[in-house]
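> call design_seq(struct)
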């Protein structure tokens, strides 16, 4: 386990998956990250790579060959190495190997950097193409935040506030984890989504091309909350597990296959193409309230 801290925050990260384990606010005395109770969901903030969500039949095709990947890919279960660390920042590295090449035929370097800011944390992902030809990938974040956050409050006291009025439907998820063909109305002329366990009875809320590039977790019963900014992420997932006290706010550069997918990686919705030697970078930032 690795720790970075400043006068505002203490953050712990596990090298498996370069996964956040704890975000503790010194000025509030609050833990902001879900504790990973295995009775509900054992993870805290997994990194999704080289796919986001599920593949149709857990299979994709590239240059005529079939490959199998589990939901959200393999990075969350791989051991990262530490490339650099200071008191308030750390960078992890995952490199392609024989095991990854068997299921994902591209040579890559994946870096995950955490940098503390005043009352906040910036997370940066870098993908570098080490292959001689283009590579194709998706990438996403999956942090789970404690709700209720403050003792004496309830899950239903909290809501998500987007930047500006939204008119965005949700894209339902099938029983196989695939995106259905038609969206359903959800955010209509509002900037607010009140948290309700009924929202997640049929898996996550999935949004495409939101107007907002930031969302704030708030409650009318406490000034404490948090904000996530995610410019450059065209998709957003929001999810919780039945009976668990958290909400995941998930910026994605990629999305699950649709029920009508032809399973071709190079033309998959949300896929990113990266030329040989090039670097893809995206960041999201957390600010505690």
């Amino acid at each position: 386990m690795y720790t970075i801290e400043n006068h505002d925050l203490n953050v712990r990260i596990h090298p498996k998956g370069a996964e956040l384990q704890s975000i503790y606010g010194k000025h509030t005395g609050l833990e902001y990250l879900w504790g990973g109770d295995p009775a509900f969901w054992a993870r805290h903030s997994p990194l999704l790579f080289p796919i986001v969500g599920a593949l149709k039949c857990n299979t994709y095709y590239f240059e005529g060959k079939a490959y199998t990947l589990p939901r959200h890919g393999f990075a969350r279960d791989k051991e990262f190495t530490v490339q650099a660390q200071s008191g308030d920042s750390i960078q992890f590295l995952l490199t392609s190997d024989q095991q990854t090449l068997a299921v994902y035929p591209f040579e890559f370097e994946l870096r995950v950097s955490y940098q503390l800011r005043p009352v906040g944390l910036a997370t940066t992902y870098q993908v570098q193409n080490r292959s001689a030809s283009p590579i194709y990938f998706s990438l996403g974040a999956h942090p789970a935040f404690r709700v209720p956050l403050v003792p004496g409050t309830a899950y239903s006291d909290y809501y998500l506030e987007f930047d500006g009025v939204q008119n965005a439907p949700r894209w339902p998820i099938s029983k196989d984890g695939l995106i259905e063909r038609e969206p359903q109305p959800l955010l209509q002329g509002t900037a607010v989504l009140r948290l309700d366990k009924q929202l997640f009875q049929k898996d996550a809320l999935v949004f495409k091309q939101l107007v907002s590039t930031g969302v704030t977790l708030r409650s009318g019963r406490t000034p404490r909350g948090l904000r996530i900014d995610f410019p450059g992420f065209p998709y957003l997932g929001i999810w919780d597990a039945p009976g668990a006290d958290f909400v995941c706010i998930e910026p994605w550069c990629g999305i699950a296959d649709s029920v009508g997918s032809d399973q071709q990686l190079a033309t998959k919705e949300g896929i990113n193409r990266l030329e040989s030697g090039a670097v893809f970078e995206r960041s999201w930032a957390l600010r505690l309230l």
